[in-house]
What we know:
Strand 5, helix 6 and strand 6 form a beta-alpha-beta unit. The chain has helices at residues 2-30, 46-56, 59-63, 114-123, 151-166, 182-190, 211-218, 224-242, 251-255, 275-284, 303-306, 308-323; strands spanning 68-74, 77-84, 98-103, 126-130, 174-180, 199-205, 262-267, 290-295. Helix content is 44%, strand content 16%.
Amino acid sequence: xxxxxxxxxxxAIYLGFVFYISNQLYRLAxxxxxxxxxxxxxxxxxxxxxLLEWFxxxxxxxxxxxxxxxxxxKDNLNLKAVYLAADASRPATEFNGLxxxxxxxxxxxxxxxMRRGLQYHEAGFDVLIPDLRSHGESEGTQIDMGCxxxxxxxQWLQVLREQMSERGLAQPRGFILDGLSMxxxxxxxxxxxxxxxxxxxxxxxxxxxxxxxQGAWLLRKMNPLIRYPVLLLCFLQALLFAGVNFLxxxxxxxxxxxEIPVFIIHGTADSFVPxxxxxxxxxxxxxxxxxxxxxxxxxHGVVACMYPDEYNRRCLDFxxxxxx
Length: 324
């Protein structure tokens, strides 16, 4: 009989441990209240943190320009964005009338994409950078990892169209959706939706193929007897408490229906969202107009920091080819 008690005790310990880890993982991934120190080396390397400062170094320059604070209400949440019109005092470029919509990553804010916004602005684009729901100044308590509420981005496009109409200005020639990390997964997931005709192209930097694969990768050093029960229980919590189904409507599933031109960028040294996911997404992409850039030696999210001029040139060349 004592053997049975010992066995039941071990099972209880196992189940308790699995539940604890899955709950921590769920809170880490989805709960806005859960505080994450992104400078910790077990999340990103010290070198990567230093490189990422490049993004935030553009904040003061961007905010010194005549940008506007925009907001909209969706699902009873107040969502925020910044908009910067092209500089009308500069000579016209082939990109005038286009809008670059920049989508930030997990637990980040619109400020992280202002540096890239400056490059687009310099080229003649209008720039729109939203705070995704549950990030930055936008309301919300649950992070959806770019899955459920990806249509927030499409709603922002409509806000811009309405603003142009109210001001008696011409409608945009088209929109470029540019996402980084979770923002990349967001725009790639959008790629399989029926998009407005004026959405011309998607640029996706270091996006994950699915949350299941991403979770399995991050927990890859964990014993499989713990790893997979933890993932499944975490995903069950996400479905029950946040309404997020990580096994459906993934970036990998959606990109197989893409008709829009897609440019995928991924660093070969990415240890957070592994490089193979970028290759997998590119191979699965059904668009007749697609490109892939394997950025040699770049870790997660820092391709634009390591190769700023080449990054900008490649993106503009891709957009230029789409316009032609």
